[in-house]
Design brief:
The complex is a heterodimer of chains A (323) and B (132).
Chain A lengths: L2 E9 L2 E4 H8 L8 E4 L6 H13 L7 E5 L11 H7 L7 E5 L5 H13 L5 E8 L16 E8 L5 E10 L5 E2 L8 E2 L2 H24 L8 E4 L6 H9 L11 H5 L6 H8 L7 E8 L2 E9 L8 E2 L3 E2 L2 H7 L5
Parallel strand pairs in A: 1-14, 2-15, 4-5, 4-6, 11-12
Antiparallel strand pairs in A: 1-7, 1-8, 2-3, 6-7, 8-13, 9-10, 12-13
Helix pairs in contact in A: 2-3, 5-6
Chain B lengths: L2 H7 L1 H5 L2 E5 L5 E2 L14 E5 L3 E10 L10 E7 L5 E5 L14 E12 L2 E10 L6
Antiparallel strand pairs in B: 1-2, 1-3, 4-5, 4-7, 5-6, 7-8
Classes of the chains: A alpha/beta (323), B mainly beta (132).
């Protein structure tokens, strides 16, 4: 049975307030108060290396590395072997990359669970984002940087996977064409209700059914935080109280960490032995939900550099948008 | 040398902080060394350096290509294993606050781009908060 035995979150040491961005371009509040920003010499590979090293804590007995990002360094070309190498892993380590949507992190977590229920003993899951959103875009107002990691093992104490659920709908609520440098977003209300909330809710309820649990029996709901508001609405739709939603301020304080969001929230979640939790990831019409029982909570861990507030010009420099 | 092959050749030293410890004199060499730079010995043990160390010496570089922010401290850091790493500081907001004896964490960071490829190098972050 798959166990999550470590959990980590790395937040780079810079942030920008969305008020600073609104002062430049106008627009309404996004529910995000601040978003984390990568250092000028960071990218998903470097952030993932920090999170991976923290999760491994010197271990090298890893069969596979699953790396999730929606902000890849290359259009074509994988950095996952570089990540494995930087973590001191041998070149017989299986590597796989997940992308396409913010669901990539939980898709990798689910695949890691399947792998350790099959031919692997230990899989490192790492998710990282270092976005470079176009100035004045909606994505600029919420896109945050960071990395999260979890070690999934066939044995050991931690979070024991009980069941999983999925909802996959042909719903393109966010997209970016190959010839465009701008993310397009469907109407917010539509995306919120039919996309994030309803699709995630379906996946969560299917996971709960498969585990033979009720929503009332849940102790923690860990979710993707696209902004500062949606996760709370998802908790309401699922029928759990505000106290069950883990890290409710995650989106408001750090922004949308996409693939690293749900795993990052998991790293900070307040868990105790015996808890039942669901980890739900959503991206572009598709949601995965994984039900876990806590045998012993892995230490909640985060590496947050001392935070420096950026003005808008410095922020553009950090995200490689300064001409 | 073409970027791809150079980066592949140097990956162990840069990505993994790997070194070859001479079994004759005990000093560290590049992991691809066939003879010890220091004593000429030809027997080595593989060593992976810890990602932390102490600043042995440094300069604050004021003139660099425009892709680098200056002033930028560049240092030689010694790890607990006795290995030495030459590199830049990362996020050097206050470059003149670096001092010999400072302890640092060694992190993999983006260094430059060549031929459309992202190049990575170990860089230093001062312990106890923001670097430098």
């Amino acid at each position: 049975m798959a166990h999550v035995t470590t959990r980590e979150l790395v937040l780079p040491g810079y942030r920008v307030s969305t008020g600073t961005i609104r002062d430049q371009w106008g627009g309404g509040a996004s529910g995000v108060q601040h978003k984390t920003v990568q250092a000028k010499d960071d990218d998903p590979t470097t952030l993932a290396t920090r999170a991976g090293r923290a999760a491994l804590d010197g271990r090298t007995d890893v069969d596979a590395v699953f790396f999730a990002t929606t902000t890849p360094v290359y259009e074509y070309g994988s950095v996952t072997p570089f990540l494995a190498d930087s973590l001191g892993l041998d070149d017989d380590t299986h590597v796989q990359t997940f992308g396409e949507s913010a669901r990539a992190g939980t898709a990798a977590l689910r695949a890691a669970g399947n792998a350790v229920d099959g031919d692997s003993d230990t899989v490192l899951v790492v998710a990282a984002e270092a976005p470079s959103p176009a100035p004045r875009s909606d994505w600029e107002k919420v896109a945050g940087a960071g990395a999260s990691a979890a070690l999934v093992e066939s044995d050991g104490e931690g979070l024991e996977r009980v069941a999983a659920g999925t909802c996959a709908r042909p719903l393109l609520d966010e997209w970016q064409a190959p010839d465009s440098d701008t993310l397009s977003t469907a109407d917010d209300r539509f995306a919120r209700n039919i996309g994030y909330v309803e699709t995630s809710q379906q996946a969560i309820e299917r996971a709960l059914d498969a585990a033979d649990w009720s929503a009332e029996s849940l102790d923690a709901l860990v979710a993707t935080h696209p902004n500062g508001k949606f996760a709370g609405r998802l908790a309401g739709a699922v029928g759990v109280g505000d106290d069950v939603l883990a890290t409710p301020a995650f989106g408001r304080e750090y922004g949308n960490l996409r693939a690293a969001s749900a795993l990052g929230s998991l790293a900070l979640a307040d868990l105790t032995a015996g808890d039942r939790l669901v980890v739900a990831g959503y991206g572009v019409g598709t949601a995965d939900a994984l039900a876990y029982e806590v045998s012993e909570p892995p230490a909640a861990a985060s590496v947050a550099d001392e935070s420096t507030d950026l003005d808008y010009v410095d922020y553009l420099d950090h995200v490689d948008q300064l001409e | 040398m073409h970027t791809t092959m150079r980066e592949f050749r140097d990956r162990a030293a840069k990505f993994g902080l790997d070194r070859a410890e001479c079994t004759d004199c005990g000093r560290m060499n590049d992991p691809t060394a066939e003879l010890c730079y220091h004593c000429g010995g030809d027997a080595f043990e593989d060593v992976t350096l810890s990602p932390r160390g102490e600043v042995q010496t440094y300069v604050v570089q004021h003139a660099l290509p425009e892709t680098f922010d200056t002033p930028l401290p560049i240092a030689i850091v010694e790890t607990p294993e006795g290995g030495k790493v030459l590199g830049m500081f990362t996020e050097a907001d206050e470059p003149h606050s670096v001092a010999i004896g400072d302890t640092v964490t060694i992190e993999l960071k983006r260094f430059d781009r060549q031929d459309g490829q992202v190049l990575y190098e170990p860089k230093f972050r001062l312990d106890g908060g923001s670097s430098a």
